[in-house]
Structure formats: structure tokens, C-alpha cells
Design a protein that fits this description.
With 86 residues, this protein is mainly alpha-helical. It has a domain of 36 residues. Helix content is 45%, strand content 0%. It has three helices and no strands. It is elongated, with a radius of gyration of 15 Å. The termini are far apart.
């Protein structure tokens, strides 16, 4: 199994870590925050339509929502400016 190291030996799937590593991807911190905020907005906006298109049952939608998509763990220690989904 290959493990993706984001910065140093850190591999947590958290937006704060991604923002702190933004320079590795030739992004400024504010640009990284803007990208994260845009992604969160689009996921929230398109969630129901995407679930409909995929034919997901209500049970499956509930299992995915805030577990696989917009999991609160991903936003722990997020930097100021990141719009944390409710």
C-alpha cells in the first residue's frame, strides 16, 4: 500500500495540513483556502443532484454524507478563513 505524505511525515487528510503545504504546490495560503472554500461550496450545492444521478438510496446518502464527504475530521485545526461546513 502506498501512503501519500503531504508534508514531511504527515499524511492526515485535513485541510489545515493541505494549506500549510500549499507552497509545495506553488500556491499561496490564501489561494489554497479559496480553493478549499470553493470545493466545499460545490459539494454542498451539488450533493443531492449527484446522489440522484448516481441512484443512491437515502440510506447510502446518509452513510456517505459527512463521513466520506465533508467529514468533520478534515476541518479540525483548519486555518482562519476556511469555511467549515455545518
Amino acid at each position: 500500500m502506498v501512503k501519500l505524505l503531504i508534508r514531511g511525515s504527515e499524511r492526515s487528510s485535513q485541510v489545515g495540513l493541505c494549506v500549510s503545504a500549499s507552497s509545495v504546490f506553488l500556491l499561496g495560503q490564501q489561494e489554497a483556502i479559496d480553493i478549499i472554500n470553493h470545493q466545499v461550496k460545490v459539494i454542498g450545492y451539488e450533493w443531492l443532484a449527484t446522489c440522484d444521478e448516481a441512484g443512491l438510496s437515502e440510506v447510502d446518502r446518509n452513510l456517505f454524507w459527512r463521513r466520506q464527504f465533508l467529514n468533520p475530521f478534515a476541518f479540525l485545526n483548519a486555518p482562519e478563513g476556511v469555511n467549515i461546513p455545518i
